[in-house]
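USER:
Class, as today's exercise, take the chain set out below, and explain how the chain folds.
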Amino acid sequence: MSFEGFKLERMSTGEAVLRFRHGGSGPPLLLLHGYPQTHMMWGQIAGELARDFTVVAPDLRGYGGSSKPSTAPDHEPYSKRAMARDVVALMALLGFDRFDVVGHDRGGRTAYRLALDAPHAVGKLSLLDIIPTADVWRLADRRFALGYWHWSFLAQAHPFPEHFIAADPVHFAFRIAQGATYFEPAAYADYVEALADPAVIHAMCEDYRAGATYDVAADEADRGVKKIAAPTQVLWGANGAVGRWYDVLQVWRPWCEDLRGQAIEGAGHFLAEEKPAETLAALRGFLLG
């Protein structure tokens, strides 16, 4: 387990209480997980990154052991802007006003929103297996509707998706990874424990409701107006949907001042767990370059 030597803590950011692990030494590096996981997804690479960085890996609000703030009709409390506020506050409390960020899936959406809203805080930015949220919806087609139907399902009004997910939340969340051996046992146990909490299921739905409404509006307000100033890396799984459906760098290019990226061979969606050595090498090459 690569979190050996890390400290596990909980800290209030003002709007939420975040569970997080931190360890290592050197310049600060923030790792943000995706759906339906927790910060434990970074366990196979965090220890190696901690050789060069002070690594901070929180659970996003609503996920894992972090608190689940009350929602609102516009779903702003589960927007990526709100999640970005949390992690900026957490890093400031730890003494870091500027840091590098790596985000996977929903954590990647939080990370690029953070870079757009608080450019002073982000040194380098690495985004794993995503394109911008507004572009996901803009480019949605039959492949997306069939392959990523959970985006629309989770975004349905409460309590419709929560009701059906509650019957078997682990199967629902990890159906595309049935029989997978790449999850570390401790990490998968953490995911399963979190999914047993109805508040986590509700928060996940709120995350996707925000993703279909508030987050799209935030992206469209910035389209053609703001660009990500931080040097940006985009990684995606060579065997995953993102790489099959999109010209990933072409989609990201209008959003970034300085962009590079690559596919991770042999990986699907869960890059850091499916291909940890390859993902680590790509991240180190970018972050230390």
Observations:
- The first strand starts at residue 7 and ends at 12.
- The longest helix spans residues 198-212.
